[in-house]
Amino acid sequence: MTIRDQVRFWLLACGAFFFLIWLFSGILLPFVAGMAIAYFLDPLADRLEARGISRTIATTIITALFFLFLVFVLVLIVPLIGSQLAGFLERFPGYISNLRDQAAPYIQHITDKIAPETLNSVGESIKGQTANAIKWAGNIAGNLLTGGLAVLNFLSLVFITPVVSFYLLRDWDKIVRKVDSWLPRWLAGDIRQCARDIDLTLAGFVRGQSMVCLLLGLFYGLGLTLVGLEFGFLIGLMTGILSFVPYFGMLVGFAVGVGVAVAQFGLGLNVVFVIGVFLLGQLMEGNFLTPKLVGDKVGLHAVWVMFALLAGGALFGFLGVMLAVPVAAAIGVLVRYALAKYLDSRLYDHAPSELAKMAHEDDPDVNESNSADKTSGAGGHKPDASADAPA
Questions:
Q1: Nearest residue to 244 via CA among 200, 302, 286, 291
Q2: What pLDDT sits at residue 63?
């Protein structure tokens, strides 16, 4: 099989893979969720197995404890968040009205200094861009709902995910060994190295970033509650969860928190306290949490992560959001691998004329012809001078 045939085969395989994900996106969510849970719990199962506990028993203990903890969170925390969210939505029009009243003098002062034609043009542009943004956000939200829990029966997610997690976690090492046996032998080393890099990237970013989001959510929630902000725990917790998307969560939480603070307290010292909570959280995240829990070598740029999450949500709904980071990590590792191969190749440090000369020299037909010419010139038959000599 030539290189062109191999490239064609792998491109067709990748296309078929994404086509199948799109085709079965309505039923894949519990299976993908179970796979993700098994992947993240596998190191813990390996540790228990190394201490002499059988894989089946270790899997049973870990799976049971994980889902008991999940049920505990759902029973205790979700009702609290739900009640705060309902109260926040009820008070939201009042917050908007208060903000409008407080901002009206400043807006009027600015509009008095702007020409009416410019003001109308800016207003029309803002309306158009706002409508486009709302439409875009609505499309993504609709895809998230139709591609996620709205199509998939909630009971299937509840009952299928634990079963999938158990069996995948129990047989995880066997599955890895089986897939490894299918690798082409001449590329097995490179594929294993890429797989290790992808695993390190996912472990460093997803596991580490999840801990960062949890700690930030608790910090923001408790901090905003202590300074007296209404619905502070809800705003802080949502800020921490949205921080999984770099910068996005903090900016959204900061805007909502400061807006509620201004509507509640007015422009006073309490607003400064709210701003201080967010600034302190950012200092803690940038100088302690992210360096310790995530590190700086995961290889996933913030812009790439944001693009992957938005693209995954727009294409495949909630399933796409779950697959976005693993796919982004895999693509990043493969791109770095291809770039390293390119930098180590003749395409990088040789001009086209030099490459053509090297290809000409490496051609076996050319080398054979040159060798024959050299042999003919050095040891071949010379012309017979006596044939031309006069008799």
A1: 302
A2: 92
CB 170 within 8 A of CB 55: yes
Kindly state whether residue 166 falls inside one of the protein's structural domains.
yes
Tokens matching residue 163 = 């079963």
pLDDT digits (tens, 9 = 90+) for 40-60: 888 899 999 999 899 999 999
List the chain residues with pLDDT less than 70: 1-3, 109, 111-120, 122-156, 295-299, 350-391
CA distances from 364 to 352, 359, 378, 379 (A): 20, 10, 21, 22
Q: Is residue 225 part of a domain?
A: no
The Cα 147–Cα 153 span in angstroms is 12
The pLDDT, as a whole number, for residue 155 is 64
Q: Does residue 45 form part of some domain?
A: yes
Can you give the pLDDT at residue 167?
Answer: 93
For the chain, what is the radius of gyration of the CA atoms?
31
- Does residue 143 belong to any structural domain of this protein? yes
Q: Structurally, how many domains does the chain consist of?
A: 1
What residues contact 119, with CB distance under 8 A and at least 6 apart? Answer: 111
Burial of 31 (0-12, 13-18, 19+ CB in 10 A): middle
Measuring CA to CA, which residue among 309, 312, 314, 304 is closest to residue 135? 314
The answer to whether the beta carbons of residues 175 and 73 sit under 8 Å apart is no
Enclosing domain of residue 32: 18-115+128-182
Q: Considering the entire predicted model, what is its pTM? A: 0.64
